[in-house]
Specification:
The protein is of the alpha/beta class. Helices cover 45% and strands 16% of the residues. The protein has one domain (6-245): Rossmann fold, CATH 3.40.50. It has 10 helices and 7 strands. Strands 3-2-1-4-5-6-7 form a 7-stranded parallel beta sheet, with helices on both faces. The protein is globular, with a radius of gyration of 17 Å. Bound molecules: acetoacetyl-coenzyme A.
């Protein structure tokens, strides 16, 4: 089993093949971490593109298939990762989906599918890594929430509930692990240039962009910047926090 020195800690990024996830993998690797992207086995085309996009990082980034909605599959995948690479020091939960519909049209299936990935997925991974992190006395967990968990959004009762839930989970787990060298924080992106946001109807997206003080969508690199900051070895006094990265779209104290 490989050992973890501070500059070569092992990071797992769920949704690692996704819009934000790929940018997060890139910046963690650039910061000297060994990175495993965890995502659905079915995304073969996306996996090929991911490998091309991150080819310059060599073997610092690898891929492990798993569905975050499946507790046992997460346990098996995380065990395989630890057997191959050593203890996980950093966990970034970036796997997420949308199933937008106003509540009057939302089906139980749209509700359940979203909650299983966006909220259960955070439990399913954290539950398997937390004991190893606390036993080793080091961990950085960064959960990706959303500005829409803070403000709500028309058509997103499911997504807003899950994303607000992610921060509640974060604060509770942060308390449980604070004395063991493990921090747990949330990053809340605003609207970013990703396939998820590209799927929002053009007219609605234009209105949203017009309301962003910085005047543009965020980039995956904007979000990754915040994740790498919270995952740093010397970020040990920041825990249970939410770091908004939204171009000023929602400001709060
Ligand atoms: N605000 C206020 N009213 C709205 C509205 C809005 N955003 N969207 C629709 N309405 C109004 C319509 O004008 C219409 O009014 P009338 O009945 O008076 O004509 C009514 O509500 C239509 O209601 P429906 O239930 O029929 O809604 P719909 O099926 O037409 O569309 C929707 C609902 C699909 C959710 C659509 O509004 C939509 O796609 N909204 C965008 C949701 C969004 O921003 N998702 C973010 C995805 S990206 C992401 O989540 C990443 C992240 O973290 C930021």
């Amino acid at each position: 089993m490989a050992s973890s020195t501070p500059d070569s800690r092992l990071a797992v990024v769920t949704g690692g093949l996704g819009g934000l996830g790929t940018g997060i993998c890139r910046q963690l690797a650039a910061a000297g971490r060994r990175v495993v992207a965890l995502d659905l086995a079915a995304r073969q085309e996306r996996l090929a593109a991911f490998r091309r996009e991150l080819a310059d990082l060599g073997d610092a980034v690898s891929f492990e298939p798993a569905d975050v909605a499946d507790f046992d599959a997460c346990g098996a995948a995380l065990a395989r990762i630890e057997a191959a690479h050593g203890g996980i020091g950093i966990l970034v939960n970036a796997a997420g989906i949308t199933r937008d519909a106003s509540l009057r049209k939302m089906t139980p299936r749209q509700w359940q599918e979203l909650l299983r990935v966006n909220l259960d997925g955070v439990f399913n991974t954290c539950r398997h890594v937390v004991e190893g992190m606390t036993a080793r006395g080091f961990g950085r967990i960064v959960n990706i929430s959303s500005v829409n968990g803070q403000t709500g959004q028309f058509g997103q009762t499911n997504y807003a509930a899950a994303k607000a839930g992610v921060h509640g989970f974060t604060m509770a787990l942060a308390r449980e692990t604070a004395r063991k060298g493990v921090t747990v924080n949330t990053v809340s992106p605003g609207y970013c240039d990703t396939p998820m946001v590209a799927a929002v109807p053009e007219e609605i997206r234009a209105q949203i962009v017009a309301g962003i003080p910085v005047g543009r969508l965020g980039t995956p690199a904007d979000i990754a910047r915040a994740v790498v900051f919270l995952a740093a070895d010397d970020a040990g006094y920041i825990t249970g926090a939410n770091l908004p990265v939204n171009g000023g779209y929602f400001m709060s104290f």
